[in-house]
Design brief:
Layout: H1 7-36, H2 42-53, H3 63-68, H4 72-96, H5 98-101, H6 105-116, H7 121-137, H8 144-160, H9 187-191, H10 255-281, H11 285-290, H12 293-315, H13 317-325, H14 336-344
Helix pairs in contact: 1-4, 4-7, 6-7, 6-8, 7-10, 8-12, 10-14, 12-14
Length: 345
């Protein structure tokens, strides 16, 4: 009988066994902290944060480390056994020992921001969900100082996910639409792509949204729920060039430029996720009642800025046409969901 070595099967066995060990280790760690944490002084909590808790998530700070998780199975195992469990346990720990850990709120918010700003849809949505959990579970305990930190975190997140590079992404801003290698765009070609900027390369799938009108892009071929009433096509949807001449050679999109394009698209997706997060939070009457008026106005200013940014892009038909011609997306780009979503919230 000939025995054949199956390398893939061996790797899967090792991954599963490692996952079980990680899961049990995390359970024991947080059970111990919950059981004995009331006796810890602040100095010891600082040590625990630096040496035990924060290092669990350090892999997200390093793109090379994240890229080592080549296989989808490895990433799925890490998410299910380490990332999700550890992050949720962190939120439980903070809530359980709020009085002892409230001075570390900024650190918890920074950790959640690190998750939300990942290029992986699943990680970003997990971070968003945990941010909502942190706020909802402690909404009655927050002081004005706490709310200021929370809103400041949102300010930072909205700023980091604003796709400012959209307005400088074209290689030749003075090129006209004549001679494009792209086919002329008709009104029908745009009304079928009312979702915001959508990656043209596969990305990690994300959990099913909890709200039917959640604003997010299509990725991994998963088609999100369409709006109940799609926006009526207007002049900004008309991309017809003045001429259909095809004398110009097709523009070649290099791998580096494609990565640059996808980074811009990712920011647009994350901005939609943040708008959705704010909407979910303020659908809760208790959050709305507890947040100080000054901080509420700061959040409203963020939404207004997001609306104005999206409207400015949507109104710039020439820019959107050039981006499409340069291979930015396979469909004409727009920020209709960002514009309508931010205004709606």
């Amino acid at each position: 009988m000939t025995w054949k070595f199956d390398r893939g099967k061996c790797i899967r066995i090792v991954v599963r066994n490692t996952a079980n060990i990680l899961q049990r280790a995390l359970n024991y760690l947080f059970e111990t902290l919950i059981k004995y944490g009331k006796e810890y002084p602040p100095e010891f909590w600082d040590t625990i944060w630096r040496q035990l808790l924060y290092p669990i998530f350090m892999v997200m700070k390093s793109k090379p480390e994240m890229s080592k998780m080549v296989s989808h199975e490895e990433l799925s195992v890490w998410l299910s056994t380490t990332m999700i469990q550890a992050l949720r346990n962190m939120m439980t720990l903070f809530t359980h020992y709020f009085d002892a850990l409230e001075y570390m709120l900024d650190r918890f918010l920074d950790l959640l921001a690190l998750c939300i700003c990942q290029e992986n849809d699943t990680l970003a949505r997990i971070g968003s969900n945990c941010l909502q959990t942190l706020i909802l579970q402690n909404v009655n305990k927050f002081t004005e100082q706490h709310w200021s930190l929370i809103v400041t975190a949102f300010v930072d997140l909205f700023t980091r996910t604003e796709a400012t590079a959209l307005f400088s992404a074209v290689t030749n801003p003075h090129s006209n639409t004549n001679g494009s290698s792209r086919p002329p765009l008709s009104r029908s070609s745009t009304t079928d792509t009312e979702n915001d900027l959508t990656p043209t390369t596969p990305r990690q799938s994300k959990p099913e949204p909890r709200r039917a009108n959640s604003n997010h892009s299509q990725s991994n071929g998963n088609t999100p729920p369409s709006p109940e009433e799609p926006p009526t096509p207007g002049p900004l949807e008309d991309y017809r060039p003045a001429s259909t001449s095809t004398h110009q050679a097709p523009i070649v999109v290099t791998a580096a430029r494609r990565r640059f394009f996808n980074q811009i698209i990712t920011k647009c997706v994350l901005q939609l996720l943040l708008i959705e997060t704010v909407n979910e939070l303020f659908s809760n009457d208790l959050v709305y009642a507890r947040i100080p008026s000054a901080e509420l106005l700061r959040l409203m200013a963020l939404l207004k800025r997001s609306y104005q940014f999206a409207k400015r892009f949507n109104d710039d038909i020439d820019l959107r046409n050039r981006l499409f011609q340069e291979g930015f997306m396979k469909q004409p780009p727009n920020l209709l969901k960002q514009e309508s979503g931010s205004a709606s919230v």
